[in-house]
Amino acid sequence: MSLKKVCGLIGKYFGVIAVVFLGIGLFAPHAFSWVLGKAYGVSILSVMLGIIMFGMGMTTSLHDFALVLKQPKNIFFGVCAQYFVMPFLAFLLSKAFHLDPALTVGVVLVGTCPGGTSSNVITFMSHGDVPFSVTMTSCSTVLSPIMTPLLTWLLVGKQIAFDPMGMFVSILQIVFVPIGVGLAVKNFFPKFAKEAVDYLPAVSSLVISFLIAGIIGASRNAILNSAGLILLVVMLHNVLGYLLGFAIGKLTGMSWKQMVALSIEVGMQNSGLATGLAKAHFAAMPMAGVPGAIFSAWHNISGAVLAYLYSNYLNEKFDSQYEEEGMEPVPVRVK
Q1: How far is CA 127 from its chain centroid?
Q2: What is the reported pTM?
Q3: d(C-alpha 193, C-alpha 188), whole Å
Q4: What residue ranges are annotated as transmembrane (predicted)?
Q5: Could you say which DSSP state residue 310 is in?
């Protein structure tokens, strides 16, 4: 089997791989402890997040923002939903389940981070509006240096001291610099970038899996003592995000395919970034990185299930409705 096919399988089954590494973190907690260390004075975790963001830059184009000019209203509502639903849902769930400060920080960070590139893949699998999804991911990422520290400070800043300006700088370093380098490589070395695209999803998947194992391993005992509660909150955060994202799309008059994209975009977060920020800015609270690590594994599993439901049942139902109304039918995957 060629390396390209192996990488394709890794990207396709990332949800399963993430669960496996979560298990490694629980049962062999020291196997990936190096993830949280330093090499030559540089944080390995930050470098790994930079690799993920570099891959995002290599697959991003300025054309991804063209839809902002064509459909400004829908993009505006989509980005507002991204930065309203998940942060405040995280805060409400943390209060409802009486989470301790560390877990509250972790859940809130997941909520205040931008959408992740996994949402674009799941939208494609669901036959949603992929350009709409990509544009929302790009826009929320561009806004993240301001929105993530601001919302985190508004939601937990009074209870837990942290430096919003330091988080702003961290996001610039972890997100914008690697994405900028990725964009530069794509523009100046297009042939290399075209070849690399086939391998980047697998690299990102493995890096995130290593992060999951490292974070879970570092907090193994605390997780085992409250595993059910953490998992329940993470699952509710994700699933309610899907539902509320879809509802907002419907209330704002979006098309079916855009509603599908918005539900996925809102429900799936850049939880790898949340994990990195937790480690960088809440180092005294090791458990703060756990919700992001669990979310990384869970949302890929739930996303795959949601894509199956959309493409095999829900789209088919609305396809018939659209045909009756004389509208363009939604594409349905051949079963």
Answers
A1: 19
A2: 0.82
A3: 9
A4: 12-36, 42-63, 75-97, 134-155, 167-185, 197-216, 222-249
A5: I
